[in-house]
Amino acid sequence: MALTATILSGFLGAGKTSVIQHLLVTGSGPGLFIMINDFGSINIDEALIRDRRVTSFALTNGCVCCSIGDDLERGLHEATVHGAEHVLIEASGVADPRATSDRLQALTAINAPSIVTVVDCASVQERADDYCGDIVIAQICSADLVLLNKVDIVGASGNVSVANWIGEIAPHVVSVPCVHGRVPAELVLGLPSNQKRRHESHRSESHDHSVQFEEARIRLQGAITIDALRSLLAQLPTTVVRGKGFVLVKGRGWMLFQLVGRRWSLSPADAPMDVRGQLIFIGGPGSASETSRVAECSLLGSARPN
After folding, report:
1. Is 32 helix (H, G, I), strand (E, B) or coil?
2. Phi-psi region for residue 41, left (φ > 0), alpha (ψ -120 to 50) or beta?
3. Which of 3, 73, 92, 95 pairs with 62 at a CA distance of 20 to 30 A?
4. Domain boundaries defined on the chain
5. Residue 1 confidence (pLDDT) above 50
6. Is residue 29 packed enough to be buried (19+ CB in 10 Å), middle (13-18) or exposed (0-12)?
7. Could you write out the DSSP letters of every residue in 45-74?
8. Does position 197 have pLDDT exceeding 50, yes or no?
9. Strand, coil or helix: what is 294?
């Protein structure tokens, strides 16, 4: 019997990993094989679910829709070896999910994957109007289902506004509101593909994400203070749209750092396997060198660009 698959799509910071974490917490792991494709060279997302009772496979150093071939094929082989019934692929935040679907079906005898796209209700319309707009629109229009995440931030009126906007640009798409990615497993894993309608929708013209996005990778040599972190974030280039990583914070221990737009948070975390702190920031052209410079100044010698 051919594998079934779901591609979980969504722009950087929309909440894809939160959706997966909720699936695992609610007992949706048996028979499920998860493939994580982080755009950054450090696969933070895969690390966040590594200890869950489910098999996962990291796709690194590229985007699953255009630059990863061997890794994807190995991951599919691993899924077969583990007797998986369903493959869930968390695509990178800059991936075109329809191109990912085409690539997936070209590599194996797999049923047409369903595509679930997560959007950040607080920022998706703004993102659709800036330099990454083509990708954001393609992710929405390629979907079978759109999860309107973070509706608690925008409130009822904001939720309605985003839902109406999505209905205008992608009338075939079903949208569901949620908070922290909490939706029933059957919405993500049991959704039939609507491949015909997706073929009629918008597609991003370019798959060369390296032209549109840059990664600044910062390794931390020791503990940092909250004030130093705030200083760094206040000076980031305006085109930085996503940040994440593990940091050792003085007086608090190891923390998971998350940045979406200008919103950021720290939450308790286990020490990374690397034992060193590390941060990744993803932004537009020219952002990497400026982010690295700001990090060196703000973190007072604790940061080392890599």
Report:
1. strand
2. alpha
3. 3
4. 4-208, 213-305
5. no
6. middle
7. HHHHHTTSSSEEEEE-SS-TTTT-SHHHHH
8. no
9. helix
Q: Select from 24, 11, 15 the least CA-distant residue to 179.
A: 15
Residue pair 127/133 in contact by the 8 Å Cβ criterion? yes
What CATH fold (topology level) applies to the domain 213-305?
Answer: Hypothetical Protein Yjia; Chain: A;domain 2 (3.30.1220)
Domain 4-208 classification at class level: alpha beta
Per-residue tokens: 104? 């997936």
User: Which is nearest to 21 in space by CA: 52, 57, 64?
Assistant: 52
Count Cβ atoms below 10 Å from residue 5 Cβ, excluding itself: 27
Q: Output the pTM of the full model.
A: 0.69
What distance in Å separates the CA atoms of residue 161 and residue 157, rounded to the nearest whole number?
Answer: 6
* Helix (H) or strand (E) segment spanning residue 7: strand 4-9
Going by C-alpha positions, the residue among 210, 138, 148, 192 that lies closest to residue 169 is 138
Region 83-108: what's the mean pLDDT?
Answer: 85
Q: Tell me the backbone φ, ψ of residue 97, rounded to 5 degrees.
A: -65, -30
In sequence order, the β-bridge partners of residue 215 are 282
User: So what's the pLDDT on residue 63?
Assistant: 53
* 46, 54 Cβ separation under 8 angstroms: no
What is the reported pLDDT for 279? 92
Taking a C-beta distance cutoff of 8 angstroms, is the pair 263, 228 a contact? no
